[in-house]
Structure formats: C-alpha cells, structure tokens
Amino acid sequence: MKAIRRFTVRPVLPEALQPLSELARNLRWSWHAETRDLFQSVDPECWAASGGDPVRLLGSVSARRLAELAEDRRFLRRLTVVADELRDYVTGDRWYQTQTTEPPGAIAYFSPEFGITAALPQYSGGLGILAGDHLKAASDLGVPLIGVGLLYRHGYFRQSLSRDGWQQEHYPVLDPNELPLVPLQETDGSQARVDLALPGGRRLHARVWQAQVGRVPLLLLDSDVEENDLGERGVTDRLYGGGSEHRLLQEMLLGIGGVRAVRTYCRLTGHAEPEVFHTNEGHAGFLGLERIAELCDEGLDFDAGLEAVRAGTVFTTHTPVPAGIDRFDRELVAQHFGPDAELPRIDVERILGLGMETYSGGDPNVFNMAVMGLRLAQRANGVSLLHGQVSREMFSGLWPGFDADEVPITSVTNGVHAPTWVAPEVFRLGSRQVGAERTEDAMTVGGSDRWDAVAEIPDGDIWELRRNLREQLVLEVRERLAASWRQRGAGTAELGWIDGVLDPDVLTIGFARRVPSYKRLTLMLRDQDRLMELLLHPERPIQIVIAGKAHPADDGGKRLIQELVKFADDPRVRHRIVFLPDYGMAMAQKLYPGCDVWLNNPLRPLEACGTSGMKAALNGCLNLSVLDGWWDEWFRPDFGWAIPTADGTATDDDRRDDLEAAALYELLEQRVAPRFYERGQGGLPDRWIEMVRQTLTHLGPKVLAGRMVREYVDRLYTPAARAHRALNPDTARESAGWKARVRGAWHRVKVDHVEASAAPTSTAELGATLMLRVRVDLGELAPDDVEVQAVSGRVDSEDRITDAASVPLKPTSGPDEEGRWVYEGPLALDRTGPFGYTVRILPSHRLLASPAELGLLAVPSEETGEGAGVLMR
Predict the structure, then answer these.
(1) 695 close to 617: Cβ distance less than 8 angstroms
(2) SS3 for 367?
(3) How far apart are CA 235 and CA 441, in angstroms?
(4) pLDDT tier for residue 794 given thresholds of 50, 70 and 90
(5) Average pLDDT of 132-143?
C-alpha cells in the first residue's frame, strides 16, 4: 500500500545527548574525523546503513541505545570534547581575523551547485565540488562567506547501467527535513520566504533553507511550496534539467532571489551585509540586476547603480568554450523583466544590453549570461593560468582593440579541500611525522611552498601506505561492482568472478569525471589489442578503475560509456578494468587515495582546471595527463608524466586521437609500468616512492583550497571591498557621468603625429634611449581624462608587438589653436632583436580597475608621422 502523506518523525534526544544534534547539523563533520568517529560509535551498524550521514543515523538509532549512551560517562566525555572543539572552531580567531589589509566584512558566494557531502546531494561535477571546497576552506580560514544556491528536490540523477551497458537515470525525491538543513525562520517562527514576479501577474515563491558549513552559512532556495502552481513548484526540481524557460527561472531565482535571501538572513541574524558578491560562473549573474534595483530605490540612476555594483562584484568563469555558456533567447528574457514582470523599475533595454553579444561573430538575438557576468563585475578570473589565457582570448571581443593579454580577466588556479579528500591514513602518517595540529594547519591554512617534512618519512612507510590504500580500493570496487551487476539483472551464481577483480599488488590507474566528449573517456580504447596487452602483461600488468556520468540529454556521452562498459565486460579483461556507475563524492573519497596513477586526457585546452588530479596528488597518487588546466601550470617530470598533444592545424580529429592514444600507450609501456615494478636493493620501488615523495612535497601545498581562497581574498575580494567602499552615491554618480562623457567624446580622440629624436633607420644599440614626441587630439576631453602611452617590445614576422611593455608619456604643451596637445617621454631600448614601438591613448580615472575597462583606445593611423612606430631588426 502507498502512503497518502509523508512526514519525518524526529528522534527525541535525552538532555545529555543534545550536543549530538548540533554536531549533526553542522557539516563540519564531513571533514572532521573525530566527529565522524563519535557518530560511528553511537551505533556502528546504523552508521554504516546511513551511509555515514549523522542526521539519518540519529533518525534510525533506537531509543534504548540513546538511553544507554546518556548514561555512558566515557561517551559523554568524548561528546563534550568534540562539541567544545566545534564551538571553538566556529567562534575563535583564524587566519582571516589576523589580516591587516581591511578585507571585506562579508562576502556572498553564489553558485548553482554545491558539493559539500554525499549526504547533501546538490552537485553534478567539478563546479559544485569546487564551490563546496571553497566554502569549507573559507570556514577553515575564518573568511566571512555566505553561500547561496538552490535546493533541488531531486538533486542530480543517480546512475545505473542496463544489461547492455546503457546509462539509466534515477531521480530520488529528497525531503529537506531528512537532510542536514534547518529552515531560516522569521522572528515569529514562520519560515523565511522570497518571491519573484512572473509575467501575467503570477509570483514565484521560495522558502529558504540553511546548511551550516563550519563557520559558513549556506542558503538554499526551494520553490516546492504550496503557494506556487505546479509549474512554479518544479523550478527547483532538478539540477541542470528542463528547457530554456525553466533554466531562466532557476537562474533568476538564484541571482535575484538569492540577493533577497541574503538580505533576509542578515536582517534576521545580524550578520554583516556583504561588501563583495562573487558569482561562480554565469548562472547567478542576475544578482547584479537586483543590486542595481536596490540602489535605484535609494535614489541612484541605473548608470550610477551599475558603477557601484560592478565595484564590489567578482566573476569567475569556468568554461573554456562558448558552447558551455548559458544563452537565452532575447525575447524570452524580455518577457520576464519590466513593468509586467520582475524588476519593473529598470528599463528592459538596459537589461538586455548587458547580455548582448555586441562583438564580431556574436548573435544580437541571444542573451549571454557570461557576457552579462563580465559586464556586471569589475574583477573577473579564470581557474588556472592556461584557462585565464583562454578566457582572455575567448572574451576579447568585449574589449575591442586590446591585445588578448590586456583583457581584464586574471586567473586564480583552483584548489581542493585537503581534509575532505585526504585519506585518514595519509593524515595519520603526517601526524606521526610533525604532529596532528601542524598537519591540520598545513592542509588548511597552507602558506608554505614545500612540505619538507615529507623527506623524513621512511620509504617503507610510504610504500606500506600506498599498498594499504590500494587494497582498500580493491575491496570497495568489488563491493560496488557486485551491486552494479545485480542492478543489471545478474544473479548471485553469475558473480563469483568478482572476488578476483583487481589485485592489490598491481599498478592501479584511475579515471573518473563527467563524460562530455572533450574529456575523451574512450581514448584508451583506440587500440583495444594494445590496451589488452597492457592489462594482461605477464610481468608488468596494469588495472584501471573508471567512473563517470553523462548528462541525461547527452546520448553521445552515453554511447561512450556503453562502449567502455562493453570492453570492461569482456571475460578476458574484466578482472583488470572496471566501470563503476553512480560516481559521486562517497566513491571519489575511496577512489583518489587508492590509485597509483591518475589519468586525464582531455582535448587541450578544454579542461579549465581539472581538480580530480589534485585530490589524487594529495594522497600520493601520480598524475599522467595532457598538459591542460592545472597540470599545464605545475607539471614537472619529478612527480608525473605529460601526454604529448597532437594539436597541429593539419591534424584531423581522428588522427589526433590516434596519435595521442599511441603516446599514452607508449608512456604506460615504457615509463610508468617499468618505474612501478622496478625494485631497488631493499626490495622497494625506490624511484616510484621518490616520485610520490616529490608529489607530496611540491604539489601538496600548491593544490590546497586554502591557498586558493587566500588568493581570492588578497587579489580579488580585498580590492573589490576597497572599490565598493570608494563608490558611495556621489562617487558612483561621478564615475558614471565621467564614463558617459568619455564614451560620447571618444570618436574625436586620435593620435595626430609621432616622431622620435635621433630616430634610427633600422638598427640601434641596446641601452640607447629614444625621446618620443607625440601630438594628439583629445577633442572635448582633457589630459586628466586620458593616458598617452608608448608601447614597445619584440615584434614578430608580421610586425605585431609581443611581450609588450608600456610607459606613460607626459603632456608638455597645449592645447594649441586646433586643440591639440603634445606629449613627450623617453623610450629605453632594453632588449635585443627585432624591436618596435607604437603609441596609444587610453581613458584614465582613479576609479578604473583596469585601463581596458571601457574597451576604448586610440592608436596611430597609417598616415600618422612614423606610422605605427619604428621597427628595428
């Protein structure tokens, strides 16, 4: 029989056990071993059955057991220690509280997904896991962050396989009352709500739930409320589901509703109002519109409000390809804003202009969320050094005339939260070496360039650790593989072979990630006979553990999974290669530590960062990867291998994949496997152990989320807070008025003439100095509005300046009768080889974060004096 109504019955904890409820509701337990050990001791069987979820554990443990624990003095002492430790963690001063640079009083961090723990399944892949790690690291550092997202009633799908290996999706219903959440409540005890206006006079209502991530509150908006019609109730039904309007409503609720939720939270709790708003990818970009509307209500016009909002906004892009950006039909967006819908006090055309693709090759009929994000943020970044470069090139059309390396998009390379991803055995090994407190501090706050203490760990201890972790993975894989085959319809009598799957003494390679085509799940299958030889090598075999989900609408990705599963089902190799369905955080926490090598073979440069290899490295796993994302930045032969890329323009896709697969096979055959199986005099693989040691020593401190968040604070949050404070209503109006005046007058700004004193004909000596004299027409502008620069550097075969350096020139006379000014200044010839210079005029104002901010510049024409400058070869 089916129940006509569902509700949650909560346990009544004895008074002595009340701290358990506080511990269960703060997600710090997900990365704090002592708290998890305490919950496990409540009832080991129930803990295992709950999947390590304290809320589910407390809902299933018997009243009799709770009564026993309430009288157990030893347990109560442990409970007191852990509860007191959490209170100290939440309230005490940490790294952020020691900063003297006046960082922001609070930061709001918006993301469409958050991967905190498997017990709160609100993530699909790397973007969400990164957001979760960002919150955890901010908590460890004491950064006053407020997370904002949506609560998806189905989360992301659960994955299983059919008998023939086709991905199948399941969407279990999540009850917020059974999750580690509490409702945000108004002072009268009612649940806090936000709402949005929809076309036709309808409203979209959402309640606000709160998860506590250590010190950091995470606000999640949920549209499944009785006040909504069926369609509106489904807005937060599932992550990345539905059609275009469904996605638009999700992103309006996240951005606009999210700001309203933050305002409500600060009003109810007294938390400081955010000075900085961080948009994690374009999905939350509408938050800027809501903040402009707030300022318009306070008396600013749209342009001044835009200036004030931009000053305190940080935008992070995660995609290296235009296809990865949300783009909506212009008319669809227009329907949802204006007098008959949301933000009625803002002109719809101004909103549409923020997302318009005005650059060459853009589509004027679409609304681009990343373009809006960049226009609403004074500071933007990619997520690795290479991805920053790719992003500057991809979005350079928004700053016409500027070289890609001058586009104002910097980079902060992602990091991972070590306490979440480091196996307890690895942590214990570090603790034995330098102590638990120093180990925890090194993994959270970071700050050092090297972990030199790793050098003192004996080879035997490192190798014993690696084998222990590999053995744990083998047991985990067998258990998950058996469950997968039973889901596929196999009977117990068919599954005896699973007891022989994988070997704890065989080189183990891991590959786990989402399955879009560019990640090339099946590159390893290009030559199946050669792969089979590697798997079954008599002296140096390898074994491979693979996991990954394809998007439900991506049949191409599902075919890749099916192809790989078909190969892994072959009785000849199924003990050496496995595909595990339903990849998620719980699986990943076993997979990363247990692998010896982490494989990554995307199409370069389409991997923005790729943090799974970082998590593996923190456990002593070596990386074998294409030079993409973070590996392009930090690879060294001391601690891993680089797969060569065949990215020449004359190479078609099939040939490229053949060449790169062959390079992968050769690396495995000639270098990776021999290094693993080679034994030194003591019977240990000395050279392999040294690579593990180098990985931990040099990569460990770099890949930390603590390092990443400290960079955000120093390089983006603190400058954004300063800019926010500087943009009071008067300065915001001043900035907006100045920009409007400069844009209106720029058509008359030009370089009239360039000359150099004692200009050389074709050669010059290193160390010589040229005196430049430049005549410019500023039209209605004054020298205070601009900067005239000399730009110089080496030139390529087409006379383009590379590795450019710029120096400002100073006005020496003017205006003359025709309104022209003369600028002069020295130009040092400080490098040898082909050399050239030019001059340019840029807008200049104390409130600009970058000279390229307005996307305006003037350069010499072909008729101007010495043209675009002088070339010396």
Answers:
(1) yes
(2) strand
(3) 41
(4) confident
(5) 98
